[in-house]
Amino acid sequence: MTLKEDFERTKAEALAAFAAATTPADLEAARVAYLGRSGKLKDLQKAFGTASPEDKRLLGPLFNEVKTAIEAALSASQAARPAAADDAPIDLTLPVRAARLGSIHPLSQVALEVEQVFTSMGYQVVDGPHIEFDEFNFSRLNIPPDHPARDHQDTFWLKSPGWAESKLLRTHTSSVQSRTYQTTKPPFRRVVVGKVFRYEAVDATHDNTFTQVEGFIVDRDITVANMVGTIRTMLSAVLKRDDIEVRLRPSFFPFVEPGFEVDVRYANAEPGSRFGKWLELMGCGMIHPKVLEMGAIDPAEWQGFAFGLGLERLCMIRHGISDIRMFNGADLRALRQFGA
Length: 340
Prior knowledge:
The protein is α+β, with helices and mostly antiparallel strands. The protein has helices spanning 3-20, 24-35, 40-49, 53-80, 106-120, 134-137, 174-183, 224-239, 289-294, 311-319, 325-328, 332-335; strands at residues 124-126, 131-133, 157-158, 167-169, 188-197, 209-219, 244-251, 256-266, 279-287, 303-310. It starts with a helix and ends in a 5-residue tail after the last helix.
């Protein structure tokens, strides 16, 4: 039997097999027998590969015709097959599945509440660019050129052929302070809730991208007492407790003098709760005179305070969350716990 006759015979057998298949099992068996990896069509292809060049020119169109016809017969049989007995019936009387409503991300919830608290105290909500100049992120904040924060180990530095100087992803929202001092005459009150970026390892308490809340005010006769009252008001409103105790410890930040670390605890915390102990929450202080001078503000006439804290840390305290990675993750099981 010639190869041409093999082509014709296989085509006829395949068409007959697909036409005779009445069950899904029969149809699958026919598909494997003719179109499977070890099927008859594969055998014909191997035989065609050993033919002479002259025979290939003659038989090539016929082989393609046979293959197309067998595949078309399979498709036709699949389309014509009636529903099998084991196909699950559709009960049109069943109720539809209830649509799951989305919810606001916990960080967005707390950020909105923080902004509302500060606007009620006369603050204006502002923000600045994420890609920042060294001048606004460091120099105008009294951070010297040899400060560790400028190292590549702590900051994401950026370069572009079209830039006259390198830029960076802002490491704190204090850069908005620099821009505000340059363009705004006191008195003013501002609060920033925005993303910042640090070049550091990610673990349960640290992330390379997080949200910072920064509040600052410049006015006459501003004291540390004003700062403590503002911080206490904000924390009581956001944490929804009236037993919050605030403790200030001396610390150093280049852009404030004096500078403090703020610790908080709950006076009426449950026995054994970690909130019964002092927890470090934020840094703050009176705005450094040099920072005001670089913004063309006379420190002899105007004073101010500034503070900054991580919104994630505030949210973790409020909801009892132990891993900061939850906020930037995509685990809906965790995020749905905060739905309204």
